[in-house]
Amino acid sequence: MPSPTSAAEKLLLQMVDDYTEREISPEDMPMDAAGDFPAGFIQKLTDTGFLGLMLPQEFGGAGFGPEVTAAALNHIARGNASTAVTLEGHFKTIDQILKFGTPALQQELLPSANDRIFAFSMTEASGGSNPMGIGSTATREGDHWVLNGDKIMITNGGLAQVYCVLVKTAPHELSVFVVDQDMPGFSFGKREDFIGLRGTPVGEIVMDHIIVDNDHLLGKVGDGGRIGDSAHDDARILMGAVLTGIMEHDLKIATDYAKERKAGDQPLTALQVTHRKVADIAMRKETTKLLFEKAAQLKANGQPYSEEAAMAKAYGSRVAVAAGDDTLQILAGYGYSREYPVEHLIRDARAMEIAEGTVEKMRSAIATAEFNK
Amino acid sequence: MKIVVCIKQVPETNDVTIDPVTHNLDRRGLAGVMNPFDKNAIELALNLKDSRDDVQVALLTMGPDDYAESLREGLAMGADEGYLLSDRAFAGADTLATGYVLAQALKKIGDADLILFGRQAVDADTGQVGPIVAEFLQQPQITYAASLRLSGDNEVTAERLLEDTKQTLVAQLPAVISVRSELNTPRYPTPRNIQLSFAKPLTTWHHDDLDLDDTRLGQAGSPTIVTKVYAPEPVKRELTKLAGTPAEAASQLITALKGRQLI
């Protein structure tokens, strides 16, 4: 008999596969074309309990650990990467409230994470990888804080109802506060029109004199940089899982097509040029899978995982673009057509060379970690 | 009100082969999933549970230990408890021997007001086990129900959907009902309910836990002999619609039957 934990994981992934096949995959192409998710889509996802997948059971969630959470997003991304990234943005935010929020704040906010989407916002017009350059501020007034500023390019921006925001509490001091869309002074700004992951809303929030209590501060004053790094680390594991899912999608398209298509009298499967491309896609997929699974395992075991998470995303995003390119080449004209999903898989993968820290920043982080060993 | 839903685990693949010796389905080594039609029966039970405070839903299946996975999925959908009937003595059972063991287990569970089945299993496609259980228990049965409602304190009304007709039937409880997939859309087990399902009771009963006549068990207790497996040619039937009042239609029917020397 399998252990209850592994049996639950198996049952979860079986349900995720079933739900993805019936409810999520069919929306992949329409979401890309529309640049949005269809009406009722997020509600169905919520009703099926996906938002609470990694939320501890004491807050009404399912309490699955980092490895299963990453595996679930990997399976969803095989059919629809945008939906997996929307969940990634939600989960990484919950993670930071679990790590840095006070018990009172967790009790106040986290039960609602089962049916409200959460988002983490760092980027401003000054850049995403330059946190000290941000202009948003929190000013202490008596026993509360007053928040002002614009945050842009937020994964789930406009969709989420709860936001962790990185602000300056002093000229060289970063802190993170939690704000709710219902707070006076909160408003939404413009939504981005990105070329990939078009089913994931990415948008702006504007804070105009939002007053929050001190208990809406995550960690301590000045912990903003540390919390931001932690959010990146958690997101990067999940992005590795999403990128693996994209490459699995590529591989299925490439192999299905190669089995059916003939070049002259020979099927594409008989050509060495096809072998090379399919083998490369498979190796890239498998390597990224090992990287994100290792990072998730380290996280689950309470060990440092920052470097491995950066590797999963930095490596996975570059090779996922290449895997899409090889898939496109196997399908040739059909691959270049919008009628087939290959071209949008390339655009989806390309987003992750930038989001949650550019690949250049990842490499710096990895190299620094190696120098420090 | 107690509802027992009888479910079956079936091979996950459609590529099931036929054993060349026994001519039975060869299920060895195949990963299993819950028979999809059984999910409609569970959904019906859970809808009734959602609409009333007094409904308890139990699941029952017979098979090897790994059939517990399907029971667990049903518990994650929302059922309250599961029973697995597992013993080497039950192996090789046809629909009659399966129905017998299920009926004996249902007697031991006791006091079931409704016993539900999916319309058939997707591996063998017989649809026989539900009716066989009803006969063993001497309970009324309605097969192929496409809608169902509790129409009184002790009564159920179901619309039976057949190939070319519909029937509305009323049965006294306790009753055995098999349901069609048109009845509902089964819910997905939520991630949280998957976790919580492992705290729900799942009981395994072996041979000695039930009151059984050994001559009715397993292959020895199975009168079915599969001599050949083939796809039958579809039979085209003549259809004559009788018009007019019921009396006129009856008169036409008698004339037609006499004309064919059938009466």
From TrEMBL, chain A:
Q: Name one GO molecular function term.
A: oxidoreductase activity
Keywords attached to this Swiss-Prot or TrEMBL record, sorted alphabetically, are: FAD, Flavoprotein, Oxidoreductase
What positions does the domain Acyl-CoA oxidase/dehydrogenase middle occupy? 119-209
Which intervals hold domain Acyl-CoA dehydrogenase/oxidase C-terminal?
231-368
EC code: 1.-.-.-
Q: What protein am I looking at?
A: Acyl-CoA dehydrogenase family protein
What organism, scientifically named, is this protein from?
A: Levilactobacillus tangyuanensis
What the entry lists under SUPFAM superfamilies is as follows:
Acyl-CoA dehydrogenase C-terminal domain-like, Acyl-CoA dehydrogenase NM domain-like
Q: Which family does it belong to?
A: Belongs to the acyl-CoA dehydrogenase family.
Instruction: Please report a single Pfam family linked to this protein.
Output: Acyl-CoA_dh_N
Q: Which cofactor does it need?
A: FAD
Q: What class of enzyme is it?
A: oxidoreductase
Span of domain Acyl-CoA dehydrogenase/oxidase N-terminal: 8-112
Q: Does the keyword Electron transport apply?
A: no
From TrEMBL, chain B:
UniProt cross-references to InterPro entries, sorted A to Z: ETF_a/b_N, ETF_b, ETF_beta_N, Rossmann-like_a/b/a_fold
Which SUPFAM superfamilies does the UniProt record give? Adenine nucleotide alpha hydrolases-like (SSF52402)
Top-level taxon = Bacteria
Signal sequence coordinates: none
Q: Which Pfam families match?
A: ETF
Q: Which residues form the Electron transfer flavoprotein alpha/beta-subunit N-terminal domain?
A: 22-214
Q: Which SMART domains does this chain map to?
A: ETF
State the Gene3D superfamilies in the record.
Answer: HUPs
Q: Could you tell me what this protein is called? A: Electron transfer flavoprotein small subunit
Gene source species? Levilactobacillus tangyuanensis
